[in-house]
Write a structure and sequence with these properties.
Layout (H helix, E strand, L loop, with lengths): L1 H6 L30 H12 L3 E2 H4 L5 H6 L4 E4 L3 E2 L9 E2 L9 H12 L3 E6 L10 H14 L4 E5 L7 H7 L6 E3 L9 H4 L5 H13 L3 E8 L5 H13 L4 E6 L16 H13 L4 E4 L18
Length: 304
């Protein structure tokens, strides 16, 4: 019996793989209503008829129902294909094929038809254009002011890759607020914005402030940043002349994008708002569903 047992083949057991960490479950405070209602439908029809792009759709904004239901929208100019491949953004990446020089007129006409009191205008990155699309930026603001002189405007401009002449053109149209989003803290730039540079974005904000404008930026939370890293980013922004900061929860747009590292509690967002104001920011919009253009109409009253 002993000989028989010793002659049996030894079977190596397969190693047990460690369990895959469960993805954090989306908390109740991130639930939003589906976009419905006659006001939303009216904006939807206008956007379609005028062949306009909105970051509300391309960026899967959770506030689209609320904002469009109130008859407002954030317009995205220079097409809907971006030359950057940021790991958080749902906007399509590639080589843009369109440059519509008539777009400024159409956007201005749509804003006038919608009777928008405060318009937010943003764009994809157009790194292949020598002027980064700056002339279209300026003309959009100028035409909007001509057709709707009472409308206030915020422009959320992309990284110009240190083309400061392009920046000067972009900010010369007469808009009330000029925004450029940092998106994340310095340590996460290679992961989140591989074609961006933390110091370069700070320099873009600094130059905008030196030109005498009201400055604004936004940071997403829940990507793995630490509180002290966020506080350092706040200090850096204040040192470079930032007036307004928005803080919101990062939400993964598709499975191909960065996963959420953490869902930040609303109480923590409130704490961050207090900390930002203590550190010298003039206005902080902070909450799980806050996005760059959320309550943007309030920001035009922030003193320069």
């Amino acid at each position: 019996m002993d000989t028989l047992l010793l002659s049996l083949p030894i079977i190596q057991a397969e190693p047990i793989a460690p369990p895959t960490p469960a993805r954090p479950r989306k908390p109740d405070w991130l639930r939003v209503k589906l976009p419905v209602g006659p006001d939303y439908a009216a904006v939807r029809k206008l956007v379609d008829e005028h062949k306009l792009h909105t970051i509300c759709e391309s960026g899967n904004c959770p506030n689209m129902g609320e904002c469009w239901g109130a008859g407002t929208a954030t317009f995205m100019i220079l097409g809907n294909v971006c030359t950057r491949s940021c790991s958080f953004c749902a906007v399509a990446t590639g080589r843009p094929s369109e440059l519509d020089l008539d777009e400024p007129r159409r956007v201005a006409e749509a804003i006038a038809l919608m009777k928008v009191k405060h318009a937010v205008i943003t764009s994809v990155n157009r790194d292949e254009l020598k002027d980064r699309g700056a002339s279209v930026w300026r003309d959009t603001v100028v035409f909007t002011k001509q057709l709707s002189p009472e409308t206030t405007i915020e422009t959320l401009i992309p990284d110009v890759k240190a083309n400061w002449a392009a920046l000067d053109t972009m900010i010369s149209g007469g808009q009330e607020v000029i925004s450029h989003n940092m998106e994340t803290v310095g340590s996460l730039y290679r992961l989140v914005r591989p074609q961006g540079k933390y110091d370069r974005s700070l320099e873009q904000i600094r130059r905008t402030k030196l030109a005498g404008h009201r400055t604004k930026s936004g940071i997403m939370l829940g990507l793995g940043e630490k509180a002290d890293e966020l506080y350092q980013a706040m200090d850096d922004l204040v040192a470079n002349g930032l007036d307004i900061l928005t803080l919101g929860q990062y939400l993964q747009p598709t499975k191909r994008h960065l996963e959420v590292a953490e869902f930040i509690h609303p109480e923590t967002f409130a704490l961050y708002k207090e900390e930002g104001l203590k550190r010298g920011l003039k206005y902080v919009e902070s909450g799980p569903l806050v996005r760059s253009s959320y309550h943007a109409e309030r920001h035009v009253n922030v003193p320069i």
